[in-house]
Amino acid sequence: MSTPASGTRAATAAVPPVLAATVPLAAVEREGTVESVHLGTLAVRDAAGPVPGAGDPDVAFLPRSALKPVQAVAMVRAGLDLDGELLALACASHSGEPAHVDGVRRILAGAGLTGADLDNTPDLPLDDAAAAAVRAAGDGPSPLLQNCSGKHAAMLATCVAAGWPTAGYRDPGHPLQRAIAGTVAELTGVPVGVTTVDGCGAPLFGSTPAGLARAFAVLATAAPGSPEGRVAAAVRAHPWWVGGTGRAVTRLAGAVPGLIAKDGAEGVLAAALPDGRAFAATVLDGSARPLPVIARVVLERLGAGSGALDAATRTDVLGHGRPVGAVRALF
Known about the structure:
The chain is of the alpha+beta class. It has a domain at 20-79 and 172-329: 3-Layer(aba) Sandwich (Beta-lactamase), CATH 3.40.710. Helices cover 40% and strands 19% of the residues. The protein has helices at 5-13, 17-20, 68-77, 84-90, 98-110, 128-136, 149-162, 175-188, 209-220, 227-237, 239-242, 248-255, 291-301, 307-313; strands at 23-30, 33-46, 49-54, 195-197, 203-205, 260-264, 268-272, 278-283, 316-319, 322-329. 48% of the residues are buried. Keywords: Signal. InterPro entries: Asparaginase_II (IPR010349). Residues 1-20 form the signal peptide. It holds the Pfam family Asparaginase_II.
């Protein structure tokens, strides 16, 4: 039987660059036996700049919602007049709990708008209890309840503040999105190489893990009162508004004083300490499961370990409802 050499060569040539850029980041162990391994890429910075991480930190990737604090900086620069919990909500992938939804309404009302002006994808809340309450009330998915509604409300409020049309605010050619793309390139230090559509319908700008880590370091070390500093202060002070009850990103930020952190779909997490120590991780299989463990190990090596961090990032493997193993970092 002949060997399909040409087919093998074609398959090898088709391997995405991101696969070659990744290394094992974490293993799932059950009573000492490895069940699965998560590959990924990790970019790390100390207070002086980049330090060795894992894999190729300059590989192109999609930061997903981890980019929201950077997007919020662009909005504040353009005139968005929010601070505190509502600015944190503009950076959020919130759980859709009642206070989150009320906060979105407050952002819209401040700009003379309502939920009818939102153009993000309708959805139910991420929080199970909140979603059950919506169903019990006879309601269904809506843009207001979707986890990105804070960002979209802030985008609309920015358009009102800047004198831009609210219609078509999701279009990559809209002045708002052009301003966001420019800010992403500036703060990451990486040209936007790809623009696609995020799950919520907003433009999604590509970057690299190293670029995302750099952007978070810039935010974390920014002068108080600057757009970057205002966003960092809001995310730092209001982690519940960035995520929600029991969310991994909320627990992580609450466990490390001064940390700004934001997760993203498909296994993305970025975080930074006030002096610029920062990291950005992307998990190749898209799983968020290893991210708390990855965060704990990186923060420990950056000198920010603690018992609170250990407790907030513990990731057990269960057997019949009890811990029989754990997720363990490999890098």
